[in-house]
Amino acid sequence: MTEGIVVERAGQKLTVLVPQEGKTYRGIPLGKVRKKEKLFAGDRVEGRIVDSSTFAIEKVKERKNILIRPPIANVDRVVIVSTIKNPPFNNFLLDNLLVVYDHLGLEQTVVFNKVDLLEGEEKEELKRWREIYEKAGYRVIEASAETKEGIEELKELLSKEGISIFAGPSGVGKSSLISAITEVELRTGEVSRKTERGRHTTREVRLIPFGEGFIGDAPGFSRVEALNFMDKEEVRLHFPEFLNYTCKFSDCLHLEEEGCEVREAVKRGEIPCIRYKSYLKMIKEFVPWLAEVPACKEE
Ligand SMILES: Nc1nc2c(ncn2[C@@H]2O[C@H](COP(=O)(O)OP(=O)(O)OP(=O)(O)O)[C@@H](O)[C@H]2O)c(=O)[nH]1
Ligand SMILES: [Mg+2]
Ligand SMILES: [Zn+2]
User: Fold this and answer.
1) Which residues contact 86 (CB under 8 A, 6 or more apart)?
2) Domain range for residue 53?
């Protein structure tokens, strides 16, 4: 049996890389595999090289994980790409992704791309967001596929073994960054001036060999809901800044419970209101005391 990895899935068409040969093949799942499961980019497979262009997939190895958004298996780390401008920053999407990927146990990096576009007040806005995420404990990189700022830092991070993927909304420059990193030319598309959104240029998942591992480009998406992946009670565990506080009750949801230290920290301004508001929105709750916190009114 020969080992391979699915590096691309376009509709039913699978592309399998056989590292031993340094060559890609059209992957054809044999009947028993096809009947049992759907294959994803990132799947490690075993099978036989049938001819110079075809690989018969006889077995799919057990998966470490499957990301639904984007659909890739065996992911080790994820780079979540956002922009302050063009398109405007969607902090709620970023917060949902951070929760979902932490739940899956992935190593995460927050990237703000297109910093070359920012002026004056917009630079201040970036600085404020950067501080919020860094204080919470995330690694934040400012980048530009245009000026190549941050590209060396990303290269270093992504040359490690395993599968790293780029996630985030359409138009933030995922494909542009991957092109700058790997020097593989990928299709990119302009952001619409009217709607300020990307045009879903990348249609398929594709893994590109880089360093000891792979970098995955995938279509953008604008909605992910943490509650589709976990119970309401779990969400609080994936806000690292909440974990610095010990509430009276260990199952505290940080709403209106007696002895809630997270609430006190929000009131004192130690936990940014905007992150706490994301948490409430994620678990679909409301707390009346928020209206009394001066720092929360400004936002
Ligand atoms: N000024 C500037 N423009 C950028 C930068 N990165 C990407 N762009 C532009 O932003 C647009 C969108 O880039 P893409 O790389 O296609 O974005 P994407 O995230 O892959 O989008 P989807 O494939 O639709 O999900 C293109 O017109 C790029 O040229 C950057 O750092 N600075
Ligand atoms: Mg793209
Ligand atoms: Zn609490």
Assistant:
1) 114, 117, 171, 191, 196
2) 2-60
